[in-house]
Amino acid sequence: MFLKYLSEQEQQLFLELCNLVIKADLKIEKEELDLINEYRFEMGLFEEDYQIKGIKYEEIVKGLKEKSNFSNIKKIMFELIALVKVDKKEDDREIELLEKLKNDFNLDSDMIKSISSVLDELKNVYKKVFDIVG
Questions:
Q1: Residues in contact with 116: Cβ distance below 8 Å, sequence separation at least 6, in sequence order
Q2: Mind telling me which InterPro entries this protein's record contains (predicted)?
Q3: pLDDT for 6-60, tens place per residue?
Q4: Burial class (CB in 10 A: 0-12, 13-18, 19+), 57
Q5: Which residue segments constitute the domains of the chain, with CATH numbers given?
Q6: Which of 66, 45, 88, 68 minimizes the C-alpha distance to 77?
Q7: How far is residue 82 from each of residues 90, 100, 110, measured CA to CA in Å?
Q8: N or C: which end of the chain has fewer CB within 10 A?
Q9: What are the φ and ψ backbone dihedral angles of 117, each rounded to 5 degrees?
Q10: What pTM was computed for the model?
């Protein structure tokens, strides 16, 4: 939804974070891979354009702190929270990783709760739309 507004370097680091998020619970779900493919499509950054390198968490966070403004960090968190929610199995390890990111990026807990709430509302709106259009 917001990833096209990130620089290419931010997009690459975002994909590296996605990789950490989907591996956090030691299970990679189809829904997670599908959403990452949607993210890649939105960014125009397909697997042939950028392959996950397995960059360490600390390097990713450092890179994003250096390259991203606060607005882009919030966009990244929005999409990562959506990724955690997509398989409807919010694992404690995934939540812990989001909490660590929240702290490392100095984000407010209320903002994270708001993002989560908005994503739930958005899911309900999409369901209603699909119910109408078939």
A1: 81, 85
A2: TerB-like
A3: 999 999 999 999 999 999 988 899 999 999 999 999 999 999 999 999 999 999 9
A4: middle
A5: 3-133 (1.10.3680.10)
A6: 68
A7: 10, 16, 16
A8: C
A9: -65, -45
A10: 0.92
**Alpha carbons within 13 A on the beta-carbon side of 20:** 23
58-108 tens-digit pLDDT: 999 999 999 999 999 999 999 999 999 998 887 899 999 999 999 999 999
Q: How far is Cα 69 from Cα 74, in angstroms, rounded to an integer?
A: 9
The letter for the amino acid at 102 is K
